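Homework help board

Subject: predicted structure for assignment chain

Our instructor gave us this sequence and asked us to write out the predicted structure in token form, then describe one feature. I got the tokens but I'm not sure how to describe them. Can anyone check?
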Amino acid sequence: MTEKLILKKIDNTAQITINNPSANTWDLESLSGLKEIIENLNKDNEIFALVITGQGDKFFSAGADLKVFHEGGKEAAKEMSNAFSKAFESLSNFRGVSIAAINGFAMGGGLECALACDIRVAEEKAVLALPEPKVGLLPCGGGTQVLPRLVGEGWAKRIILTGEQIKPEQALKIGLIEEKVEDGHSLEIAMKIASNVANQSPGSIAKCKYLIKVARLSDNPYQEELEPFVNLFDTKDQKEGVEAFLEKRKPDWQNA
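My token output:
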């Protein structure tokens, strides 16, 4: 796919490392590569969770390579923004649980990558920001849309409109991340969280993710759950989950 993304599979977890030194920036190659990886993982019944992190100890990802915009102009901007949108939409729609292990600076498209994940774990040294307006641009990978849903409109405006850089302690308070950890431990903690996902039915997880997403827009939240709940009874994993509970054993999920 691309050497700028390193993929490992450990038990039921896929680990993706952004590998584009020195700042792990995103480009057309890595963005299309991410989309392809996610599409393949969605077809892999052995994968229940995904962890994404950055190579090295300074950057999770510094976002887009601005040289692309400077040299390519409007056409390059159109191509890159489309690639960002497709890549991070794919990440957001990953059928399992996605976790960002933020091991350093997460700026612009780097933070938007983390925002596309279900859970964010950040090290104490991490810095989170959407600084695009400082260079006459705006977030094009979901930042203006996803950030307000996580932290509220006020904090989203403060981060985007003033260019404020957020440290993990503040990020935890406002709901931008779910856990702050010591430097050097974000991947370890993220993988530990991912390992817990193997205890859950993959089919149930996929439906729960969908319902949590539509909860923001639903006018009748209690009705939204009914049909997906009943439909789970058509799956092998639902039968296996109940039987395993009654037999006091660990379920053997088939993702079917």
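Reply (TA_rk): Your tokens look well-formed. For the description, you could write something like this. The longest strand covers residues 5-10. That's the kind of observation they're looking for.
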